[in-house]
Specification:
- The chain is an alpha/beta fold.
- Helix content is 40%, strand content 14%.
- The chain is built from twelve helices and twelve strands.
- α4 links the parallel β8 and β9.
- α2 packs parallel to α3, α9 crosses α10 and α9 packs antiparallel against α12.
- The structure holds NADP nicotinamide-adenine-dinucleotide phosphate (NAP).
């Protein structure tokens, strides 16, 4: 069983239908050799797209992945690497940063990409996302940085993360190429993007959103408050012959008409293997709405 491939916007790029997220990479405590093995195994399952960011792993995650990829340089040709910039967090790697903030200045974006490329040991990113809409964002300045990165070939495609529809429109209005995605949280326990216009915009512009934290960072599976939701997910899993409630959650996310690409957050290959089977699960409209109701505790009006 291998996941399919999907064009995330009419102009590309083509990504795997599910994406492997590397936010928790350092928690997995893998040696470079073990990490290489993990990458090879998820690539075998069809997950060739990797989601990363400059900040992940306290600014050490990209270098950790880069060290693993260095052990088998030709693997890079099979991968699509996504990274992000624009969020600045206090760390020993950012001695000038005293308060978490966003920085979308051109110089910061360009320097951040150079650092990501060097840490990852690659000459290009397949996709760069602005991690958050900087409240002090000057759209013309971001557009100049994005345009320069695209022209230089350092970044093949550009997009955003956690943007509101109006923030997206503002930045898009300054670009002469399309933003190819908006990466947002989508989960039964985080349905805001479904109703606030974010996913409508995605359909309108014909790009696919990338869906992060589909399991709420794991809380959907653990928190007592979500027990009623888990009960309904378990009933639906039986009805559709799914092996786990995680598969049902992923099928629920993928059923949205904007075709979100779920980003998996697990570092356990057996969980990845089980997750990819969610692509074959078809929920009925009423099953989808039962899950929505169980998560929100109320019916549609
Ligand atoms: N753009 C943004 O601002 C943003 C925000 C958040 C995340 N992201 C991206 O989205 C990715 C996924 O986010 P996330 O880590 O919050 O995802 P998630 O799928 O909601 O949560 C993953 C967590 O759930 C745990 N888990 C427990 N049982 C599991 C099971 N059966 N299957 C899968 N996971 C299970 C995992 O632990 P184990 O490892 O032990 O399985 C892991 O700690 C990140 O790596 C990152 O690339 C982006």
């Amino acid at each position: 069983m291998s996941v399919s491939r999907i064009l995330i916007s009419p102009e590309g790029p083509q990504f795997s239908r599910m994406v492997m997220g590397y936010c928790r990479l350092l928690e997995w405590q893998m040696s470079p050799q073990q990490l290489l093995g993990f990458v090879e195994q998820h690539v075998e399952l069809g997950l060739t797209t990797l989601d990363h960011a400059d900040t992940y792993g306290d600014y050490g995650g990209e270098a950790a992945l880069g060290q693993a990829l260095k052990l088998k340089p030709r693997l890079r040709e099979q991968l699509q690497i996504v990274s992000k910039c624009g969020m600045v967090l206090p760390s020993e790697h950012t001695p000038q940063c005293h308060v978490p903030h966003y920085n979308s200045e051109k110089a910061h974006i360009l320097a951040s990409v150079d650092k990501s490329l060097s840490n990852l040991g690659t000459d290009h990113l397949d996709l760069l996302l602005l991690h958050r809409a900087d409240l002090l964002m000057n759209a013309d300045e971001v557009a100049r940085a994005f345009t320069q990165l695209k022209r230089s070939g350092k970044v093949r495609h550009l997009g955003v993360s956690s943007f509101t529809p109006s923030q997206f429109e503002l930045l898009q209005s300054r670009l002469d190429f399309p933003l190819v995605t908006n990466q947002v949280q989508i989960s039964p326990i985080r349905q805001q993007a479904i109703t606030d216009g974010t996913l409508d915009q995605s359909q309108q512009h014909q790009f696919k959103p990338m869906a992060c934290s589909c399991l709420g960072g794991g809380s959907l599976l653990k928190a007592p408050v979500h027990q009623p939701l888990r009960d309904v997910l378990a009933q639906v899993a039986l009805e559709v012959d799914a092996a786990s409630i995680v598969q049902v959650v992923l099928a629920w996310v993928m059923m949205l008409p904007s075709h979100p690409l779920p980003i998996l957050g697990t570092g356990r290959i057996e969980r990845v293997r089980q997750a990819v089977q969610a692509e074959n699960i078809v929920l009925s409209r009423q099953q989808w709405y039962r899950i929505r109701r169980a998560a929100l505790g109320r019916d549609v009006d």
